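Throughout our pipeline, every protein is held as a single compact record rather than as scattered files. The record that follows is passed on verbatim for readers who wish to inspect the format.
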Amino acid sequence: LLDRLLLNEKRMNGMIESLESVIALPDPVGEVFDQMKNSNGLIIGKQRMPLGVIGMIYESRPNVTVEASSITIKSGNGIMLRGGSEAFHSNLALAEIIHEGIRKAGFNENMVGVFETTDREAVNHMLKADHLIDVIIPRGGEGLIKFVCDNSTVPVIKHDKGTCTLFVNHDAPLEMAKKIAVNAKVQRPGVCNAIENIIFHKDYQHVKEVLDALKAENVEIRCYGKIADLYKDGKKIDDMNEFNIEYLDLIISTKFVDSVEEAVSLINEYGSGHSDSIISKDYFDIQKFTNEVRSAAVYANASTRFTDGFAFGLGAEIGISTNMLHARGPVGLKELTTYKYVVFGEGQIR
């Protein structure tokens, strides 16, 4: 929690860098795409337009105030921000700066609205304001997401928890496996794109070395099934539901699987649909994994820590969506737009 609340010079510079990246991106609104001419001569195309007014409900991280505001303004939307009580004063201070910038640019500062209260009743009002708000985006813990989904009459773009898994295939290069496992778990264990599980093909020869690399970084290894017999420095577990837990800490669950098919099945059943990765040199196993894992972001031979709007080159993100509809993965500028059909004719009638 303290790490997420921290606003030091490095974090502030990161927010500025994010803003500059958004400024550099092309404006998506008005873009015409998928244009075609049909048999009767009509020219039919899709034109991007803003979603409307976004209700943003979020916890902890004050940088969300800046990132959400910037990509909302750039995509032509309005936004109502309701941050958590733990970052209340930081959010108000940042909102004041944002409003000053909007005024200096000659626009109405109310395109970014901020609830100046920590009263939970404000959230209840937002969730029922379907006549005023076009979409709700919650960003926070599992409890917040569930509350919003259960109570909102406004459409929701959400991500559930980030239960991410790394699959180490039978042919995974040792150094790559160690480097990716440590980065994906240890760099920032308290974020949603950090791995919570590492599963190994039963024929992989370097399991102990990979787990030792994690152990050296003070990661608690929780071992299910036969892997507990191999790795004596871990904690034995006997509940597969451990593979559905978002630890957000230096803890990881591990087990053997017999095949890439079993790895895919485990991830689709116990994962949260966020980000999952395979380490392998086998082209066909990689293709099977990336084709059949249903998550919003699927990696081959790379860390899941890249699931982030800035890292993807989107400038910033307003959240990471595990929805199957509308937007998936980092929600950037284009994901904050919808489209309408624009049709040009020369007097055609049906």
Q: What stands out?
A: The two ends are 61 Å apart (CA to CA). DSSP finds eleven helices and 16 strands in the chain. The chain has a mean pLDDT of 94.
